[in-house]
Write a structure and sequence with these properties.
The chain has 13 helices and 7 strands. The protein has 278 residues and is of the alpha/beta class. The chain folds into 3 domains: 122 residues; 77 residues, no CATH class; 72 residues. Strands 1-2-3-4-7 form a 5-stranded mixed beta sheet, with helices on both faces. A two-stranded antiparallel ribbon has the order 5-6. The longest helix is centred in the C-terminal third of the chain and has 29 residues. The protein is globular, with a radius of gyration of 24 Å. 28% of the residues are buried.
Length: 278
């Protein structure tokens, strides 16, 4: 979701606050140090500068009201700006339960009440996102009410190509995969997007997804190698972390795990680790 809206933030702003103008993201350092909100945007809404705060949820979370309240209050306190909070739920959970869109804290005769906006995409009519100015949100069409069919996927693909947003096709594939889960639908979806392999591979979204996937793979392999060392010789953990985290080649990490696994003594394992300098 962050990748999608970053490509065209005005589309999201226009959906949530019609008439508002996107003016940039809040200072990322501020976000990292103080809050872990998904999105904090500077916007001008009804001639007033405010912060649009958005959280994306795949499923319901009973702690969501408290979390949204915390993000809203902390951001307001640190920036001095009014904050408009929205939670966007992507798919309906099996229980169908979504937390109320308000947070209430009562102590004796004192009551603190905070409300925010919740959007359940499966309850949003497809035509709401299929409007001029919201082209950047077209990949979400299959998640909308009435969007769980092949025709909507085909329409999404056609419109992204026609409006110059074909770089978002990989994200369309990802979102459609949340809905089309039967064996037949999975096969159809895979074949449909494989037919556009050249277009997908050349898009920025594909490159970013693949880059993040590779990075996660490297981190997982590094941790696996470290675990092999710690499980046998805990006193080598510091050396293992220093040496192994410097290796970012997946093939080399695979060989390293094998070499560590067949090291019978502490000396052999230490020798393998120190050989990583070479």
């Amino acid at each position: 979701m962050k990748m999608l809206v970053r490509a065209n933030p005005q589309s999201l702003v226009s959906l949530l606050l019609p008439g508002a103008k996107f003016k940039g993201e809040r200072d990322k350092e501020l976000q990292a140090r103080t809050v872990e909100a998904d999105l904090l945007y500077n916007v001008v809404y009804k001639r007033r500068k405010i912060i649009l705060h958005v959280e994306f949820q795949r499923r319901g979370d009973k702690r969501m009201p408290r979390r949204v309240w915390e993000y809203n209050v902390v951001t307001n306190y640190l920036t001095g700006c009014s904050v408009y909070s929205v939670v966007i739920y992507l798919v309906k959970s099996k229980s169908g339960k979504i937390a109320e869109s308000f947070y209430r804290e009562e102590i004796g005769d004192q009551v603190h009440l905070f409300s925010f906006r919740s959007i359940k995409l499966w309850e949003v009519p497809t035509e709401v996102l299929n409007r001029p100015g919201l082209e950047g949100l077209l990949p979400l069409l299959p998640l909308t009410q009435g969007g769980q069919n092949h025709e909507v996927v085909e329409e999404t693909i056609a419109q992204l190509q026609a409006t110059g947003y074909q770089d978002l096709l990989p994200l369309s594939y990802a979102f459609a995969a949340l809905i089309f889960t039967s064996r037949a639908d999975k096969l159809w979806l895979k074949e449909r997007f494989e037919n556009m392999h050249d277009i997908l591979e050349g898009s920025w979204a594909y490159q970013e997804i693949m880059g993040k996937g590779r990075q996660q793979g490297v981190l997982a392999m590094q941790q696996a190698a470290i675990d092999v060392v710690v499980a046998r010789f805990p006193d080598l953990e510091a050396l293992a972390r220093t040496k192994i985290t410097a290796v970012d080649n997946l093939e080399r990490l695979q060989h390293l795990i094998v070499d560590l696994s067949i090291s019978l003594t502490r000396e052999q394992m230490e020798r393998v680790l120190r050989s990583l300098d070479v």
